[in-house]
Amino acid sequence: MRIMLWAALLALVAAPMGASAKELSGKELFEANCAMCHGKDGTVSDYGKKLKPFPARNLRAVAPFVDRDELRRIITYGVKGTAMTPKKYTLDPLEIEEVIDYIKTFDYKPNLANGKKRFEAVCSTCHGMDGRAKTGVGAKNLVYSKLDLKGIIHTIRYGRPGTLMTSKRHQLSNADIADVAHYVYSLRYKASPERGKALYQKNCASCHATPGDIRLIGNAAQRRKISDLDDRLLDLRIRHGRHVERAGEHITKLSDDDVQDIIAYIRASTGKQ
Questions:
Q1: What is the spatial distance between Cα 250 and Cα 243, in angstroms, rounded to a whole number?
Q2: Residue 154, φ and ψ in degrees, nearest 5
Q3: What's the Cα-to-Cα distance from 17 to each of 4, 12, 250, rounded to whole Å?
Q4: CA angle 133–137–139, rounded 5-degree value
Q5: pLDDT tens-digit profile of 31-50?
């Protein structure tokens, strides 16, 4: 009897262990824990669209551009004030990583027409219709931004503390954010070292044969070389440096794009990108 009792107890223990030993794929875990709101393909279910106070997010639109750390935090701890509850009680850490792996397989084809429309409606007041930010409010010139798509999407979603750039994640859907980001990226001015070289020869070479011949003066000379200056300081030096009076008024007539081309040539010549 004692042996039979121990055998029965072992059977009871072994059964759930065997069941839990089955490893589910990230896709299966996603479908069991996330698809009710986000849809099986990540584009939001009908149920998810009706959630209050905010609908579920389209994961497919931003998954390629959101870091694993952020996805892990959201899945593990949820998002306060939304229907996204913590999943740390239903998924263990390894299962969460499996879900993230699956989400990371999602792709998204941006709609630039929608991006342009939403940019003009939400962003142009500060950044201008062309993204060059000549609006007088101190917004960033998006045409010369160095942010990659991840950086643009993060900025749209969360804003920039201490500036007028506020979070747009409750004003724009994830698809809108992805579309706007791709549209903003399409506005990027592609500075040309070749054009910059021609402009440099015309406007600068009479005093500085090559960018490597430029010598800083004053306090800057004690700490930096021309290649150490960031784009903003290079722009200021080209437009407003002490050389302007010697070089002539034509320097002040260089366009914004001309200056970017000259900077690109300086970077290429000095080996400091």
A1: 12
A2: -60, -40
A3: 20, 9, 80
A4: 45
A5: 999 999 999 999 999 999 99
Alpha-carbon Rg for the chain in angstroms: 27
Q: The tokens of 35 are what?
A: 């698809």
- In the numeric block, which tokens belong to residue 239? 């437009």
Which residue range is the domain that position 241 belongs to?
193-270
Helix axes 93-103, 68-77, angle to 10 degrees: 130
Average of per-residue pLDDT across 166-177 = 96
For residues 97 and 126, membership in a common domain is answered with no
Residues in the chain: 273
Q: Is residue 7 part of a domain?
A: no
Residue 229, domain member (yes or no): yes
Residue 149 and residue 182 in contact, taking contact as beta carbons nearer than 8 Å: yes
> Is residue 123 a part of any domain in this protein?
yes
Both structure tokens of 51: 């959630």
Residue-wise pLDDT for 65-101, tens only, equals 999 999 999 999 999 999 999 999 999 999 999 999 9
Spatial distance between the Cα atoms of 175 and 167, rounded to a whole number of angstroms: 15
CA distance 85 to 108: 25
Looking at the structure of the chain, the number of domains it has is 3
- Nearest-10 Cα torsion for 70, 75, 76, 81: 90
Both tokens of residue 127? 């950044």
* Residue 8: predicted pLDDT: 46
Cis peptide before 53 (omega within 30 of 0): yes
Give the tens place of pLDDT for each residue, 212-223. 888 877 666 666
Let me know whether 151 and 198 are in one domain.
no
The reported pTM is 0.81
